Amino acid sequence: MSPADELRIEHIDGRLRIEHDWPAEAARCRAIQVALARHAITHDDFGPVRHLGGVDIGFEDAGQTTRAAAVVLDAQSLEVVDRVLVRQPTRMPYIPGLLSFREVPAAMAALERLSIKPDLTHVDGHGIAHPRGLGVATHLGLLTGLATIGVAKKRLTGVFDPVPEPRDSHVPLRAKNGQVIGLVYRSRAGVKPIFISSGHRIGLDSALYWTRRALDGYKLPETTRQADKLASNRA
User: Fold this and answer.
1) For residues 151, 54, 67 and 152, what is the CA-based torsion angle, rounded to 10 degrees?
2) What average pLDDT does the structure give for the chain?
3) Do 99 and 137 touch, CB atoms closer than 8 A?
4) What residues pair up with 12 in beta bridges, in sequence order?
5) Tens digit of pLDDT for each residue in 167-187?
6) Furthest C-alpha separation in the chain
7) Superfamily per CATH, domain 3-231
8) Which residues of the chain have pLDDT under 70?
9) Domain ranges of the chain
10) Where are the alpha helices (DSSP H) in the chain?
């Protein structure tokens, strides 16, 4: 079976609707990643932003239960206007590079239960800044149709120069071929930078803009910070 054969693709209201199985075998997961990544949209393809979403995943019961948190904030005030927490049995162990197969099903379930649909969603994890171009944010965006931004705390792939110390400094994150796949961004002086990348339906400049807009004095944007509190049972 070719990688493309792993996908079920429809066109609904002018947009792609993509589905696939959730195999446990690493080789099949990687094949799906390769096929899916070809459909990622890395330019702006979203309308007015009234509500910002945030998604994060936590675990409990020694990792046996996945806690998926989705929050929605007013884009102007950054006030939380909706939040959902979903618990599901953890479907597979952590495998480097395949995190989305562990986390996305529960994240989708949480997003489906929101009463307010976000116009743009920050995801705790990478977007296209991934060895096969399909981090959690891109995978989630492609399956839900949502515009997504990857905001990660650690590098997964790519190289970058040192980030200047002042707040709001950033440098490109580049793949081995020199392609810019994200930004390494210092959201607070004196703390380690975060990694911003396009997830789906957004360009890198806008991903940076909306991450800046969502900052409220902390290292992480308020979207994923609030989702992290809920996913980690600190809310």
Assistant:
1) 0
2) 95
3) no
4) 15
5) 999 999 999 999 999 999 999
6) 50
7) archaeoglobus fulgidus dsm 4304 superfamily (3.30.2170.10)
8) 1-4, 235
9) 3-231
10) 26-37, 99-112, 136-144, 204-213, 222-231
